[in-house]
Amino acid sequence: xxxxxxxxxxxxxxxxxxGDPLRVARAVPGLQQDAGADPVxxxxxxxxxxxxxxxxxxxxxxxxxxxxxxxxxxxGETRGAGSVKLALTLRLRDTDGGTTLTFDATAxxxxxxxxxxxxAVSSAVVRLLNRFAEALGETEADAEPDQPTEEPEKRExxxxxxxxxxxxxxDEPPAPLVDDFTEPAGPxxxxxxxxxxxxxxxxEEVDHAPPRGRYAPVPAPQTVASGAALRWAAPAxxxxxxxxxxxxxxxxxxx
Length: 255
Fold this sequence. Notes:
By secondary structure, this protein is of the alpha+beta class. The protein has a domain at 2-142: Alpha-D-Glucose-1,6-Bisphosphate, Chain A, domain 4. The protein is 34% helix and 25% strand. It contains 6 helices and 7 strands, in the order E-H-H-E-E-E-E-E-E-H-H-H-H. It has a 7-stranded antiparallel beta sheet with strand order 1-7-6-5-4-3-2. Helix 1 (11-18) packs across helix 3. The radius of gyration is 58 Å and the shape is rod-shaped. The chain starts with a strand and ends with a helix.
């Protein structure tokens, strides 16, 4: 089969990734590496349609003189006697904005995979190659070394620091500083208003004038009962006096 995949990574960067077995192993989707074995060796579960087959094996990648890469792999089923062999040629072509990877592959297999539909097997292989190419580009992007930051050059300055000029002082004592947050001195607003209303009066009248406003004394309450009694007592006394006069005159006439 032949298949092409576009990766948005420069060609030289992908060549560096293919030359590092550790990066190749991280790019194989779903690979569970065996401890102490080759970097690209371990268990790989392949899903074909509604079935899945787990293989254990290894893959070797080597560069060729023409700039292509040879990929050879062999694996066997973990639960069965089936096996598969892969021979793949990988070519890199510079493309606008990235690289095009071309896969030319042949494979031989026996066991469970031969019992599955051929279209499902081809789709599974294409999906595996696409994910491998994309993961290879992402792995290379993550491995990009950070650009060293340029340290600013140290500049030697010959400038001299001038001494501050002397400040002339006077013998007069300086005025005290006024705190902006202190309350202003002076009479309250009510007292100032009372003083303003007394303008034009003599100093003696002002000094002896009774306080006004909120400071004026409260007058003593007047009883209404006593006032009312006095108003009724005066007419009654007049009536009694008039009656006495009339009685006195009547007695004089009888005599």
